Please model this.
Amino acid sequence: MIIHIENLKKRYKKEWVLKGININVDTPQIIALVGPNGSGKTTLLNCMTNLLSINEGKVQLVGKNHNDPSIFKEVSYHQDNRILYGHLTGYDHLKFICNVQKIPLKAIDPVCERVGINYLKKQVRYYSLGMKQHLLLAMAIINQPKLLLLDEPLNGLDPTSAITMRNILLDLYAEGTTILISSHNLDEIDRLTNTIFFMKDGSILEESLLDLNNRHYEVLVSDWNKAKQILNEKGIAFSVTNQNQIAFSENDLNLQTFIHLMNDNEIIIEDIDKKKIGAEKRYQELFEGIGST
Amino acid sequence: MMLTFELKKHIFNKKFFILSTLLIVCVLLLFSRNFVFQSYIPKEQLQEIDNYIKTSQKNGTQYEEVLKNEPNNEEIKQLQKLNYMMINILYDWRNTRSSNDWKSNLQLENDFLTVALQFKELGGDFPLSQTEMNRTITFNEKLLELNIKPEHENYSIALPNFLKNVIDLLMNFGAFILIILFIGDTLSSEYENRTANLLYTQPLNKANIINAKFITSIFVYLISVLLIIIITFITTYLFGKKGTFSYPVMIERNQSLDFISIGDYILQGMTIVTCLVLLLISLLLFFSLLVKHTLTTIFLVMVTFALGYMISLINWNILYWVNPFQYLLASDKILIQNEYVWYQGIPSALLITMIFYIINIVKIKSSRVV
Model:
């Protein structure tokens, strides 16, 4: 088992911030953790890596209890850039990782080349946010981990760097690394994976295996009340957006059938918006109430 | 591996550079003060003799007045006789001061003080206390016996004496402040800056963090002491005097006066300071683990030391064995050894250091970053 989390609960003072998380991953995959600020994503990652204590439950990573420091030979945690020492160089950081991981120092050059770092001799305090993210990624992957945990790795990255990072993560996944990524960048999440854990208020609200090939339509009609009535009568699943568009999935209703239905009832179709059901769409549905009937 | 990284973190830090520079500047300023004061020392001593002469002359005039009215007052006659002797010696001493004959100077000072003591015993009025005079006489005799030229107690530019001045500063709060400034935040800042997250997510035995911090702290302390000693050696070599490490330091031992060499004084002082520093480091690490906040850590350490020192003021012999905080003002522990010996608190200092070291190791193993 690569990740085994059973009824994980975490409390700060009297407030439960994780309310019984269960995650099981036994084959390499990319999993995204998505949720609004304060939903418990970082707390979950910190609890998984034993940076924070847990109040209840059980966490095992790569088959070992999470409080066994030896897990970090196979598990890497890409955290925010505050973990870096400003007055030390990038090389100092990578050398330290190599030393504690017992990796030969010659591993530094290839990983820097892979991530695109050529400023190792500069002190970290002179790095831009993007440069720090690259260094953090290099530090996280230099030990070729079985499990890579990433907390907002795309923050501060320009589009080119974001593409590089995405490609590296996809390569690592292809090489057999399981990746658990927490991010607000839903477009990038869509490009990386369709396995998404949506978190809210310390719970996993939904484990979605989004079908990215499935189409979703939002149609603006002349009389949406009448259209609603017709679709309800036919028992077709649909929703209404906050702009009074009729929204439905291709799985539930074929577009041609919808057009015929509207024409038969003299409802004029003014606009058709064709969308993928991606992370963003699902996020809106879950957290912003958009698209619900 | 952890140790190298830790050393690098401290030594390549801007704070280390600034504090080391400040340390060098402080030693240089202290030496400059002593250097500048050299020309004032003879003047000061001459002024002192002149003051004695004036006092003696004033006493003489008063005795003459009394003897006019009571010509048979034997006590006053005796005092007047001693007073004249003192004035004669003081003039001789004053004349000899300009020469470089330090031995005659010391001998004359002792002759003067011996007569002054008799004068005081007979009820004469003189500004020096008997204890002071006895101490000076004994010290001068020791210098004459060892054939060592006297140095000014506070403003010497001779290497051993100036080094003693510097070590005195270290012994009296100096080392405490130095360690607080250099490594007061060594562990707490890791939690405050979140860099502890990096250390905690590596395949490391967390005990290594304490080991590395402890050793690095000692290393930083040694570097700063070494820096002080090197600067002292260089400045005194270039602008000062060679002096001798056999120079006597007067101490009180079992209610009587005794001597140790300045070399022994420095050695004993550094031993005490080092023990105190070890205790301080282990307490800093302990409170850092407990509160994970630098200012609170420093506050708690200071409170602990202040309380410990206050307890050491209680005159109870067993406390000299069990309370290492007595070394906060360490020079007293060497200079006055009436009810105890200087090294009496060292075993407890090392034992408490060891206990806190073990507590720290155990505590960090179960600690988290918040």
